[in-house]
Specification:
The complex is a heterodimer of chains A (215) and B (468). Chain A contains eleven helices and no strands. Chain A is mainly alpha-helical and 215 residues long. The C terminus of chain B is likely disordered. The chains are: A mainly alpha (215), B alpha+beta (468). Chain A: Keywords: Coiled coil, Ribonucleoprotein, Ribosomal protein.
């Protein structure tokens, strides 16, 4: 509450009425039960009567300028609230970008049950998680497939051929000799049948590099 | 110690460190079965593979670790954690291949400071039995006598074992499964047919006896296996092929398979009366652990004990541990916390680790700093107090901690013990007397409320106070 004005000033303000339009009346007449805004002669008379009657009580009831004051403070407060919200949003966006930038340097996806020591958090260690580790296991054995039946599986053939259609060496496929021979035989057959190109990857597989907008 | 037949020199050699180092454990399997996934060769493994050894200071100064040759002082003396693991006692280059084992040694030490009791996996969707709902309230220790058994006795407790002769089919790849069928299962066909014939004979005998009992006659002679005709047996096999529940129970018992989750679409009550392994086993859903379900990392049987504070007395909640936010929340994946070197999921529920958008509760509690995005301002990263309630061993041998939100009072006490806050009051306490002038205040309040209403009307915001 703002400090109360001297009683005489309060009385003077209360008696004088500059305007009889309802909003102003409402403003002046805050301390009483505020009637609904109606611009009727009856209302004006009533208002005058009320103000006369309240002259004595004015000291306890408060300052008529309070409402305007309050309105100003509230406008300011609302403005500051929106400003603060906007600032918080900006701050959050900046934090998100900052966080994403740092997390790009931390490619390891932790799982529950992993054990870490300080060196696991180091940049050197984190860089090792960036690229896929080379395959060690025999895929054909793990999947239990028969390679000779896979001649129509072009994505599988692409895994075992170079981009120019050559069969990958067993050091690159990490297959055991039996399976490497079977895979190589299958690729020779499918290329001999004319189903798979001998000098480039299958057109279906490289379509995206020629028509990227198709996605 | 070693037998009397061995010479003194031989006994000395046998008990020496050089010969008593156990064989290394196998490399932990990849969890997500993608061959060639992202990983690092130098990362800390989820469980130690080599024994960690240490040596007293006097011996270390001489480079003596009890092995074939002295160790380099430059690397073994310049550390505060003198633990090493021996990868190879002797190599062709005439050196001993060793590395620091401080990572797992210190993790073990920290884990034992947490005082976590290991428990069998918690099965949330087991709610049909009234008996089991009571036991859901607390975790069952892995050292309970009815759970901690390995040997197959053919009795009632068999279904609670953690070790099985057969494999866990859910974890096998297609190729492994085909090989298992060809190498292990196919040679046992004749044995299984004989078993089925015996079961058919028993079934027929039981049903005959029952009919006879109902009609008040003498029980007919027992049906033997040799009485069963080939046609009868073929019919029985055909019927059994359509009865997947019975067949599954028979096969898994015969091969002693590790329990799998119950097949989809089978009614619980119907399933329960069959003699199968699945319903009672705590490892039915999560899979059997590769080692003892305690993994030897903690031998506590329970966490139902009270901690005593030297000043405040017995504590209702246990001392919380400071957890590091290892990775923030990414989409649906919960944030990861690191407690004592073990990564765990953040506690679920309405707490500071779970941002809830559009809920009123989150406004009061707030979200911890590093949860929604990485905290780059706090020195050393965001940390929070959590309480480790229990831990389980999953099928790939990882120790998975379950965390709980820490009690605020316990957090304050933990912070005070580290000297971060002062709450202990030794002096006399003052009673609080509320100030008087209640009547005037209420009037002020009503005045202010009226002013507020006027301002609402003028600013056109009355609607926001109209709500009840």
């Amino acid at each position: 509450m703002p400090p109360l004005l001297p009683a005489s000033a309060v009385r003077g303000l209360a008696i004088r009425s500059f305007s009889t339009t309802s909003p102003v009346c409402a403003l002046r007449d805050t301390s009483s039960n505020r009637p609904s805004p109606r611009s009727s002669p009856y209302y004006n008379n009533y208002n005058k009567y009320r103000s006369n009657q309240q002259q004595n009580q004015q000291q306890q009831q408060g300052n008529p300028g309070d409402a305007a004051n309050l309105m100003m403070t509230r406008l300011k407060r609302d403005g500051s609230v929106t400003l603060r919200n906007k600032q918080a949003q900006l701050e959050q966006l900046r934090n998100q970008k900052n966080s994403a930038d740092y997390l790009r340097q931390m490619p390891r996806r932790w799982e529950a049950g992993d054990v870490y020591s300080p060196h696991d958090m180091s940049p050197v260690e984190m860089q090792k998680w960036r690229k896929r580790s080379p395959r060690k296991a025999d895929v054909v054995d793990a999947l239990g497939i028969r390679p000779l039946d896979m001649y129509k599986n072009f994505s599988l053939i692409q895994e075992f051929t170079s981009t120019s259609g050559q069969i990958t060496h067993s050091s690159g496929t990490s297959l055991r000799p039996v399976n490497q021979r079977k895979i190589a035989k299958m690729i020779r057959r499918v290329q001999g049948m004319g189903l798979y190109p001998t000098i480039h990857a299958h057109p279906e597989m490289i379509r995206d590099s020629f028509f990227p907008e198709r996605r | 110690m070693s037998g009397r037949a061995v010479s003194p020199g031989g006994a000395l050699l046998r008990t020496s460190r050089m010969f008593s180092i156990p064989k290394p454990l196998p490399e932990p399997p990849s969890t997500n079965l993608h061959i060639g996934d992202h990983k690092s060769a130098t990362m800390t493994r989820p469980y130690p593979q080599h024994q960690s050894i240490t040596s007293p200071l006097a011996s270390r100064e001489k480079g003596d670790w009890g092995l074939k040759r002295p160790f380099p002082l430059k690397s073994t003396m310049a550390t505060s954690t003198p633990y090493i693991r021996i990868k190879q006692v002797d190599t062709v280059e005439n050196v001993t291949n060793f590395a620091s084992a401080a990572d797992h040694s210190l993790s073990l030490e920290k884990f034992q400071e947490l005082r976590v009791a290991m428990s069998v996996p918690f099965n949330p969707d087991k709610k049909s039995h009234s008996a089991s709902t009571r036991s859901e309230l607390w975790h069952k220790s892995v050292f309970e006598e009815d759970m901690d058994l390995t040997e197959f006795k053919g009795g009632r407790g068999d279904d609670r074992r953690w070790k099985f002769q057969g494999p866990w089919l859910a974890r096998m790849t297609e190729g492994e499964f085909v090989e298992y069928l060809n190498k292990k299962v196919r040679p046992k066909r004749a044995h299984f047919r004989a078993l089925l014939k015996q079961k058919l004979a028993d079934d027929i005998t039981t049903s005959q006896n029952k009919v006879a009992l109902d009609e008040g006659r003498e029980a007919p002679p027992k049906v033997e296996v040799r009485d069963i005709t080939e046609a009868q047996f073929t019919d029985y096999l055909r019927a059994l092929r359509n009865d997947r529940v019975t067949l599954y129970a028979l096969v898994s018992k015969f091969l002693d398979l590790a329990p799998l989750g119950q097949p989809v679409g089978i009614i619980h009550a119907f399933w329960a009366d069959r003699d199968s392994v699945a319903p009672d086993s705590p490892y039915g859903k999560s899979g059997p652990p590769p080692s003892h379900p305690s993994a030897g990392i903690s031998y506590l049987r329970t966490n139902a004990f009270m901690e005593n504070h030297p000043v405040y007395g017995p504590q209702g909640k246990r001392a919380p541990a400071l957890a590091r936010v290892v990775y923030p929340k990414t989409g649906p994946i919960p944030p990861k916390l690191g407690v004592g070197g073990f990564v765990a999921d953040a506690p679920s529920g309405d707490n500071e680790f779970n941002p809830r958008y559009g809920s009123r509760m989150s406004v009061n509690k707030g979200v911890l700093n590093g949860i929604t995005h990485l905290d780059t301002t706090t020195f050393g990263g965001a940390k929070a107090y959590v309480e480790a309630s229990t831990a389980t061993v999953d099928p790939s041998g990882k120790v998975v901690l379950r965390l709980r939100e820490a009690d605020p009072e316990a957090q304050v006490i933990a912070r005070e013990s580290r000297g971060l806050t002062e709450i202990y009051n030794d002096g006399p306490t003052k009673s609080y007397v509320p100030s008087e002038q209640p009547s005037q205040q209420s009037k002020r309040v009503s005045d202010e409320a009226r002013l507020n209403r006027v301002a609402d009307e003028v600013l056109g915001e009355s609607s926001r106070f109209d709500k009840p």
